[in-house]
Amino acid sequence: MSKDYTFNPGDFVVYPAHGVGQVTEIQQTAVAGQNLDLIAINFTKDKMMLRIPLASAQKSGLRQIATPAMMDVAVHTLQGKAKAKRAQWSKRSQEYATKINSGDPVAVAEVLRDLYKNPAVAEQTYSERQIYEQALGRFVSEYAIVNDMNEAEAATRLESILKSKSASVKAEAK
C-alpha cells in the first residue's frame, strides 16, 4: 500500500469504514478557535460527504487507492482455496467485519473467497450473504477504479473469477 499521505482534489481514496470515495477539496476551517485543514471526501454511492482532519488522516486509515500490483495480489487471494473455519459463526462474522473495515483489499478478498458459494450449487445464510455483499461492494469499487472500468463490469469479472475458482475446486475433489 502507498504510504504517501498527500491527498489532492479529484483523488480516489479508501476510508476503511466506508470504502472508496473521492477527495473533493482540502479546506481550512476554524473549529473552537483552531484552524484545521480538512479533507472533504464524497462517497457517491452512499450519498455522503465526510470531512477528516488532515493531521489524523493516516491514523484514521485513510489511504490512496491500491496499486495495480496490490490489486493483483488481492485477485490472487480470491483465486485461492477457501479456508475452512471451525469457529462459531458469531466469532467468524466479527473477524470478517474486521477484515472488511480494515480497508485492506487482500483482507477483503479473503472474506470474499471464504464466503463465496456458487448460487447454482449452494445456499448462503442471510447473515453470510449480507457480509459477502458488503465485502463485494467494497472490493468491486476499488477494483473498478484500479482497472479503469465501471462497477458493473468489475462485479461481473470478479464473479467469474470466483465461479471459475469454485469449478476448479470441484474438479480437484473428483
Task: Please give a structural write-up.
The radius of gyration is 18 Å and the shape is elongated. The protein is about 50% helix and about 20% strand. By secondary structure, it is an alpha+beta fold. A hairpin with a 2-residue loop joins strand 2 (about 20-30) and strand 3. The model is unreliable at about 170-174 (pLDDT under 50). It folds into 2 domains: about 10-65, Beta Barrel (Thrombin, subunit H); about 70-174, Methane Monooxygenase Hydroxylase, Chain G, domain 1 (Up-down Bundle). Strands 4-3-2-1-5 form a 5-stranded antiparallel beta sheet.
Domain count: 2
Task: Report the CATH C-level class of the largest domain.
Answer: Mainly Alpha
Overall average residue pLDDT: 86
The low-pLDDT segments are 169-174
From the spread of the alpha carbons, the general shape counts as elongated
Task: Work out the strand percent.
Answer: 15-25%
Please state the CA-atom Rg, rounded to the nearest Å. Answer: 18 Å
**CATH topology call of the largest domain:** Methane Monooxygenase Hydroxylase, Chain G, domain 1
What characterizes the major β-sheet? Answer: 5 strands, antiparallel
So, the CATH homologous superfamily of the largest domain? Answer: CarD-like, C-terminal domain
Fraction of residues in helices?
A: 40-55%
Q: SSE order, as H and E?
A: EEEEHEHHHHH
Q: Helix tally?
A: 6
* Through-space gap between termini: 39 Å
Shape-level CATH architecture of the largest domain: Up-down Bundle
